[in-house]
Write a structure and sequence with these properties.
The chain is of the alpha+beta class. The protein contains one helix and eleven strands. The strands form two sheets. It has a six-stranded mixed sheet, with no helix packed on it. The protein has a five-stranded mixed sheet with strand order 5-11-10-7-8, with no helix packed on it. The longest helix has 29 residues, at 4-32. Bound molecules: copper (II) ion.
Length: 153
């Protein structure tokens, strides 16, 4: 004999899990969506052990070298104005890296031979504000210092 309570809690569980599944699928789809008109595009290339930032709008690239002693970068950075919507096109030149801006929840793999796209909003903060960029995929000896900054311009 079928217990009505068992049927009820089984159906309730199925409905709950299906609801969470549909909601998550829609949310994931929207998280992956790219903006139609980002403020700027930046090509990000991971190298052992530095980040290269290319700005297609004026066809220039910068190698960003991190100095652990002073916690600063030279040669270039990821520059963006406050409030900008930045689309990054991320790849790697040698091994797999991962592009991460912890404070902004940005994290995307940099894979040789493949370009991953991601868009994020730059906070409306004062020019000069810096957000740490860190490689989050172990990529060799100097992985730990494969850093740079998002600099609000
Ligand atoms: Cu790396």
């Amino acid at each position: 004999m079928v217990n009505k309570v068992e049927v009820a809690w089984t159906l309730a569980t199925v409905v709950l899990i299906a609801g969470v599944g549909v909601y998550s699928t829609v949310l994931l789809y929207h998280l992956d969506a790219l903006p139609a008109n980002p403020t700027e595009y930046v090509d990000v290339i991971g190298h052992q052990w530095y980040w290269e930032f290319c700005y297609p709008v004026n066809n220039t690239c910068f190698n960003s070298s991190y100095d652990a002693a002073t916690n600063s970068v030279s040669g270039g950075a990821l520059w963006a104005p406050p409030g900008a919507v930045v689309q990054i096109n991320v790849t790697a030149a040698d091994v797999i890296h991962s592009f991460n801006i912890p404070q902004l929840g940005v994290r995307i793999d940099a894979i040789p031979g493949r370009t991953n796209h991601f868009a994020f909003g730059v906070p409306n903060t004062s020019p000069g504000t810096e957000y740490l960029i860190q490689c989050t995929e172990f990529c060799g000896t100097f992985h730990g210092t494969m850093r740079s900054f998002l600099v609000v311009t």
